[in-house]
């Protein structure tokens, strides 16, 4: 399975492409924003394509040609303003969904926020609410398609070493999770068709990732 990793130069994206290198059944195509980011992925033997999420749908669609799945791991980052949150986390996500549809890619995995229900927007701190709102609408757009989607809602992301153990369910208690383990959950979701048209929250836990995802 060839997978377009959107936001490959982000922290989850880099882990994902790195881990996919060791999977015989998975091949990464890294979508990056500029050519200077390519060396990391080329050293892994991964194909790269340079597209900015603020480009138009045809540009993203061209990047998605020839792949079997799209994983959206991109994010505007904590230090950008509301404008970038709208352009990347909302519009960039929607354009990527539409691009996948336009080239016939059915499998789509979205890395979302932990809780994107309407109430979560109202309860979020003022600085975080725009991000939750962007994810709310991007997730809703994806749900209304006929794509074979999976929406993953990770807890508080950390750079701790992954444990390979998680808690995964439609709703779990708030907790943190290493980015490495989020990347491994993405791989397990790609490998398990039972995750199609489902969404779930993930945090650190005591269940091996493959087992937790197989039980979704």
From TrEMBL:
- Which InterPro entries does this one have? NAD(P)-bd_dom, NAD(P)-bd_dom_sf
Please indicate which superkingdom the organism of origin belongs to: Bacteria
Identification of the protein by name: SDR family oxidoreductase
Which Pfam families does the UniProt entry name for this protein?
NAD_binding_10
Q: Which residues form the NAD(P)-binding domain?
A: 7-192
